[in-house]
Prior knowledge:
Its EC number is 2.1.1.-. This protein is of the alpha/beta class. It has one domain (15-218): 3-Layer(aba) Sandwich (Rossmann fold). 31% of the residues lie in helices and 23% in strands. The chain is built from seven helices and seven strands, in the order H-H-E-E-H-E-E-H-E-H-H-H-E-E. It has a seven-stranded mixed β-sheet with strand order 3-2-1-4-5-7-6, sandwiched between helices. Helix 1 runs parallel beside helix 3 (77-89). The protein is globular, with a radius of gyration of 17 Å.
Amino acid sequence: MAQRTKIAPDAVHHPVFARFYARYSEAVDLRAGIAEHRHELLDGLSGRVIEIGAGNGLNFAHYPAAVSEVVAIEPERTLRQAAVRSALRAEVPVDVVPGAAEALPVKSEAFDAAVASLVLCSVRDLSRALGEIRRVLRPGGELRFFEHGRADGRVLATVQRGLDRTVWPLLFGGCHTARDPLGAIEAAGFEIAGYRHVRVPAKGVASPSSPCVLGVARRPALGPDE
């Protein structure tokens, strides 16, 4: 079970956005193809898993039976309550825990895998959050990530930067559209094992959060002198 610390249960508080997201995400999960990406993201996982920013728990239904436990960290109270309800329906054990990504309330090297799903856009300190994920993974453990980020096209990338400096984080729970999740993961000391770019939704008009990347990174195994 997770080791609790003195982290404030409501380290993140976006009640209006949380209620909107809980309804919106469930409505578009299948229609936009996100459910399919969630399944691919989690396929093949086993052992103990920590999920960072679990939201309302839409990943829980996709965890394979080989997963022995999921510790799901969610700092926002409204989303955490929804995640608890999702955990009760999950086919694997899920423990929903309050906490912030920048100070995970669990022991070091306690997990076989970590999952970051549409969350690195909104953490307050990206490098610190990734450092915490690296800390709690065992050497050789996997980070599965499905994140939206900076667009390749000049026009959309410019729009993203402008929105990030103005209204987007205020409207969407601290979300930033122009971050570079791949670059940040590598800078945190992970080895990228593979990834592919996806667009959400796959067809139709692109939004600032449409460009996504789905992949696997690993915490390097300890060397002989470590």
